[in-house]
Amino acid sequence: MPGQLGGSLKSAGAWRDERLEASAALDLQGRLRQQPATLRARLSGAGERWMLEDLLLQLGDNRVEGGGGWGERLDGQLQLELRRWRSYGRV
Predict the structure, then answer these.
(1) What is d(CA 87, CA 34) in angstroms, rounded to the nearest whole number?
(2) Cα–Cα distance between 41 and 26 in angstroms, integer?
(3) Which H or E run contains 18?
(4) pLDDT tens digits, 12-46
(5) Per-residue pLDDT tens over the stretch 38-86
(6) Is the CB of residue 32 less than 8 Å from the CB of residue 59?
(7) 3-class SS at 74?
(8) Which of helix, strand or coil describes residue 88?
(9) In the chain, what are the helix, strand and coil shares in percent, each to the nearest 5?
(10) Cα distances (Å, whole numbers) of residue 31 to 16, 25, 60
(11) Is the dihedral of CA 33, 11, 23, 7 positive or negative?
């Protein structure tokens, strides 16, 4: 996909008590295929429990928002607004 994205990725983590503890925040904005694009999300967790929060993926009029978690169970919610998905053709 032709375009440009820029932004920030902040992360922190450590190996404690034989398990990974980490967090990350991603905030990218720009243009892809001549459309405004945004990708934002926060990830955090420790060991086998992880959370994805404040997910926003937007390309033009199309939008995916949500979050969730995984560990012993997978649980999440997504809201999809795919108004012009067909106009992008094949990836």
Answers:
(1) 12
(2) 5
(3) none
(4) 999 998 999 999 999 999 999 899 999 999 999 99
(5) 999 999 999 999 999 999 999 999 999 999 999 989 999 999 998 876 6
(6) yes
(7) strand
(8) helix
(9) 5, 75, 20
(10) 39, 20, 9
(11) negative
- CA 91 – CA 87 distance, rounded (Å): 11
Confidence tier at 91 by pLDDT (50, 70, 90):
very low
The DSSP bridge pattern shows strands 3-16 and 35-46 to be unpaired
pLDDT computed for residue 90 by the predictor: 52
Q: Which residue has the tokens 């998905």?
A: 85
Per-residue buried b or exposed e for 19-55, using 16+ beta carbons within 10 Å of the residue's own CB: eeeeeebbbeeeebeebebebbbbbbbbeeeebbeeb
Ramachandran area for residue 3 (φ above 0: left; ψ -120 to 50: alpha; else beta): left
Spatial distance between the Cα atoms of 85 and 48, rounded to a whole number of angstroms = 34
